[in-house]
Amino acid sequence: MSLNQFETDEQRAEALVDWLKANGVWIFLSIVIVIGGIIGWDYYKGHKSNRLSTQATNYYIFEQALESGKLDDKAIAAVMNDTKAEGFKDLAMLQKAAFQANDNDLKGAIADLQSQLSVTKDPVMKDLFRYRLAVVLYENKDYTASMTELNQIVTKSLTGLVKSLQGDIYVKEGRIDNAKAVYIEAFDILQSSVIQRKINQLSTGA
């Protein structure tokens, strides 16, 4: 998807939200790649140390394997076994879990997300893991556990996505009034045509 085809920032934002929602398990993959690129650039630009260069290289090898459609166990181990590579560990585990979920290994993705969530220190990153975990739990039809994770998220920039997924859960549970209420809240934040269609469908009973 190229955002250059859209004329305004509002159109670009809506297109990005729609694309993220439509691609399910890859909901945060594009964000992770952007963050990873920024971190990698800062590390290399500063030439801070050989250790940082090694960490970035290990992560790059892991990422390249993913792009070719496979998990490189040796590369992921190199990232995860480095006690000083906290940021890279978080990014790598988010990407690994996305790969597993896309490969229908939902249990593996859940286990890895839960494991990394328990040791991640940055509060925003913890909420990213909670949201990602909630998405996979939803796909695994564990709606109660998914809602539990969503209810713990406090990062305001994630509120729209949280509300949208809560709406999806309410629909699955047959709680249509609750679903419409949170979809409306999500739409007010994200202005997404995908969410608007969900509201329309619930309103017409389609």
From TrEMBL:
Domain of life, per lineage: Bacteria
Family the UniProt entry places it in: Belongs to the YfgM family.
Domain Ancillary SecYEG translocon subunit/Cell division coordinator CpoB TPR: residue ranges: 18-203
Main location class: membrane
Residues that span the membrane, as ranges: 25-44
Gene3D superfamilies: Tetratricopeptide repeat domain
Pfam families per the UniProt record, alphabetical: TPR_21
Keyword NADP: no
Membrane topology summary: Single-pass type II membrane protein
Key words of the record: Cell membrane, Chaperone, Membrane, Transmembrane, Transmembrane helix
Cellular compartment(s): Cell membrane
Keyword Transmembrane among UniProt keywords: yes
Name listed for the protein in its UniProt record: Ancillary SecYEG translocon subunit
